[in-house]
């Protein structure tokens, strides 16, 4: 008996998962939105920057952790980044293994006098998904899919039997996140609970969700005010 999660698609626009389980589950986190590809994070610098970062450039900390700059304002003490697989040149989950005072080196802007402030000092943003498609097979049980929230959770859907739902083809809006509170950085995460599970019961669920906020690719047009040419060379959205 086991539960499994398979991520089928994770790009700048959407994420698709397949879930299977034949065990009892109560508020089991299935999707941590902060770990999805293109989830923006705020990296705090050791002081207000006197140097520029180019939007879309790869920056490296501790010579091993790679990120793409998605947003920066001249003179700011923070820079907005997403995780980056520098070997395969694609966005990935954020690498949070950095340490205080790690040196920052930009692929375009070069070595920076600012270092990483604090101990890793990534700040998560308020991420928002909208569920757009569901297909499910449940055998002998119900599955409640909930949006997690530090103050209050919210039921997205209660599934039983077999079926499918597509907000696009049925001209319905998607299912937005409506939980409340981000204590513990849980707001918008997706969790499952099973109702009426017995030893022979199971479910298989396919879920598609649109990335609605704070999963943005680089804002290249900002380079015009940062002293860099505006280009889209690093725009890898696959």
- Number of strand segments: 18
What's the CATH class of the largest domain, please? Mainly Beta
Unreliable residue runs: none
From the alpha carbons, calculate the radius of gyration and give it in angstroms. Answer: 20 Å
| Largest sheet geometry | 8 strands, antiparallel
CATH topology of the largest domain: Jelly Rolls
Question: What is the gist of this entry?
Answer:
The protein has 238 residues and is an all-beta fold. Helix content is 0%, strand content 45%.
Explain how this protein is built.
There is one protein chain. The protein has 238 residues and is mainly beta. The chain has 2 domains: 3-33 and 126-213, Jelly Rolls, CATH 2.60.120; 41-124, no CATH class. Helix content is 0%, strand content 45%. The protein is built from no helices and 18 strands. The protein has strands spanning 3-10, 14-21, 28-31, 41-44, 58-61, 65-71, 78-85, 90-92, 103-106, 110-115, 122-124, 128-139, 142-147, 154-159, 162-166, 175-176, 190-195, 202-213. Strands 4, 5, 6, 7, 8, 9, 10 and 11 form an 8-stranded antiparallel sheet that branches. Strands 1, 2, 12, 15, 16 and 18 form a 6-stranded antiparallel sheet that branches. A hairpin with a 3-residue loop joins strand 9 (103-106) and strand 10. It is elongated and about 60 Å long. The mean pLDDT is 90.
């Amino acid at each position: 008996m086991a539960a499994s999660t398979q991520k089928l698609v994770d790009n700048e626009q959407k994420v698709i998962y397949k879930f299977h389980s034949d065990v009892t589950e109560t508020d089991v986190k299935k999707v941590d939105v902060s770990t999805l590809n293109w989830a923006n994070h705020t990296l705090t610098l050791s002081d207000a920057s006197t140097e520029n970062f180019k939007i879309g450039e790869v920056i490296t900390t501790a010579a091993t952790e790679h990120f793409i700059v998605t947003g920066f304002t001249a003179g700011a003490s923070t820079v907005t980044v997403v995780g980056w697989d520098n070997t395969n040149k694609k966005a990935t989950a954020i690498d949070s293994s950095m340490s205080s005072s790690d040196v920052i080196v930009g692929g375009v802007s070069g070595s920076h006098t600012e270092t990483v402030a604090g101990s890793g000092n990534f700040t998560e943003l308020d991420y928002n998904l909208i569920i757009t498609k569901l297909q499910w097979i449940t055998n002998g049980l119900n599955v409640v899919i909930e949006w997690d929230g530090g103050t209050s959770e919210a039921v997205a859907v209660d599934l039983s039997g077999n079926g499918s739902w597509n907000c696009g083809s049925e001209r319905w809006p998607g299912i937005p996140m409506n939980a409340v509170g981000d204590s513990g950085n849980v707001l918008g995460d997706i969790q499952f609970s099973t109702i009426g599970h017995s030893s022979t019961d199971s479910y298989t669920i396919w879920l598609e969700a649109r990335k609605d906020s704070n999963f943005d690719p680089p804002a290249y047009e900002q380079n015009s005010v940062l002293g860099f040419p505006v280009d889209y060379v690093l725009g890898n959205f696959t």
